[in-house]
Design a protein that fits this description.
461 residues, alpha/beta, FAD/NAD(P)-binding domain, Enolase-like, domain 1, 5-stranded mixed barrel, 13 helices, 21 strands
């Protein structure tokens, strides 16, 4: 049949890519359909890669004191280069593996057929034995905020900004809001960060939250906790955010960073009986199947954990189920989080608050970067590594890191936590020889700090 495939993947972000590559490598005839002609999804073009590239460039300019180059437009040019390289790489994956690319917006006609309005203006129908929906998410837009105004931006449209703002308000102090607060503050832009909750990034360990808040304030970010907007008014010269607390904040631009919505609308899912929740996320079972068994979904479109790394694995696992009718793998229990503020944050496993709530006897080991030779050599002495472990068995329960390279360092802790038997205890770090000088040495220092606490406790009993 013309335009028939074994599998059609809708959405070319990490979830879709993971699924398409797995299916085609197992010999299936695969097509990738995406309304955006440059594959890679929002991860490559509007969210993960751009924001991290901007952050890295901002940090380099700030640390080297090259303030004459420090403007948002210069950062955007650097980010565009990375985005283009990533796009070229991702496109080559599909070409090398003979995956057909369909440029257009897909809508289900029935359980095995989609109608696609192609980007060239034509219309076409395609059928498949299996589908995987990986359409991702987009910034949430409340109805009473005018996102058509050029001074009201979200994490997608901020990349189209043609100006170098001197002041900005960021509404929403989650991961995206905190990252952009660091980026703009690194450019000496005056930043108001409005948080609708009583503390930043509440899913993190409290000690890390305190460190993040301290360094944002230390760098000049004005934090406003437990605030909600009443209305937003924009004109040719700026934006005023009116808060319910009767505060009024006036800046050049507003960056809305509060919430995301799944890209599930106008896909014909209701007609098929595929339900979505209030956030637009598709509900799936443990095999990433919708109520229609041959239609799968993966990535941000199914909600938590909303991480590019997890999305790729979800797509790959769903594809494994398509190919073999089963998949013995699921997402790991403890998925590391990486937050690219300046300095960056990363964590895996339990927080102190969770362990306290569950009444698990634990102890803490700290290593402060200012005491590490490698940090002293590089001059990046801000930060720490924190290990949480069971007081009796010494099993590693959580690792939390704040400082330069945190998102890289965390994987050592993740690898040890995943080991079986005695391989996942504090003793691994104590008895292992680390390169010197390295940042990884922080694990040995923290482990020795922790075991000393335990020994001191035993000595006093």
């Amino acid at each position: 049949m013309k335009n028939h495939y074994d599998v059609i993947v809708i959405g070319s972000g990490p979830g879709g890519e993971g699924a398409a590559m797995k299916c085609t490598k197992e010999g299936l005839h695969v097509a990738m359909c995406d309304y955006f002609s440059m594959v890679g999804g929002s991860c490559t073009h509007t969210s993960t890669i751009p924001s991290k590239a901007l952050r890295h460039a901002s940090q380099i300019l700030y640390e080297s004191n090259r303030l004459d180059e420090s403007n948002f437009q210069s950062l955007l040019k650097k980010a565009e280069m990375v985005i283009q390289e990533q796009f070229n790489l991702r496109k080559s994956f599909y070409e090398r593996n003979k995956v057909d690319i369909i440029d257009g917006r897909a809508k289900f006609i029935d359980e095995h057929t989609i109608f696609v309005k192609l980007t060239n203006g034509a219309e076409e129908t395609y059928s498949a034995d299996y589908f995987l929906i990986a359409t991702g998410s987009r910034p949430y837009h409340p109805d009473d905020v005018d996102f058509n105004h050029p001074r009201i931006l979200d994490s997608d449209t901020i990349l189209n900004l043609k100006d170098n703002p001197s002041t900005i308000t960021i509404y929403g102090a989650g991961v995206i809001g905190c990252e952009y607060a660091s980026i703009f503050r690194g450019l000496h832009v005056k930043v108001n960060l409005i948080n609708t909750r009583d503390k930043l990034l509440a899913f993190l360990d409290d000690e890390i939250i305190d460190a993040v808040a301290y360094h944002l304030r230390e760098n000049g970010v004005i934090l406003r906790h437990s605030e909600e907007y009443k209305k937003v008014a924009a004109d040719d010269n700026g934006v005023t955010v009116y808060l319910k607390s009767n505060k009024e904040i006036r800046t050049d631009y507003l960056l809305w960073a509060q919430g995301r919505t799944g890209n599930s609308d106008d896909m014909g899912l209701d007609k098929l009986g595929i339900k979505t929740n209030a956030q637009g996320s598709i509900v799936v079972n443990e095999n990433n199947q919708t109520p229609i068994p041959h239609i799968y979904a993966a990535g941000d479109i199914i909600g938590f954990p909303n991480l590019a790394s997890a999305s790729y694995d979800q797509g790959r696992f769903a594809a494994t189920h398509i190919v073999f009718g089963k998949c013995d793998h699921q997402l790991v229990e403890f998925i590391p989080t990486g937050i690219y503020t300046i300095p960056e944050i990363s964590s895996v496993g339990y927080t102190e608050e969770q362990l306290t709530k569950e009444k698990i006897p634990y102890e803490v080991g700290h290593s402060f970067f200012k005491h590490l030779a490698r940090a002293q050599i590089t001059g990046r002495t801000t930060g720490m590594l924190k290990i949480l472990f069971h007081r009796e068995t010494l099993k590693i329960l959580g690792v939390h890191c704040f400082g330069h390279g945190a998102a890289e360092i965390i994987h050592i802790g993740q690898a040890i936590m995943s080991q079986k038997g005695d391989g996942n205890t504090l003793m691994f770090f104590i008895n292992t020889t680390f390169n010197y000088p390295t940042m990884a040495e922080a694990y040995r220092v923290a482990a020795l700090n922790g075991i000393n606490r335990v020994n001191q406790l035993k000595k006093n009993l």
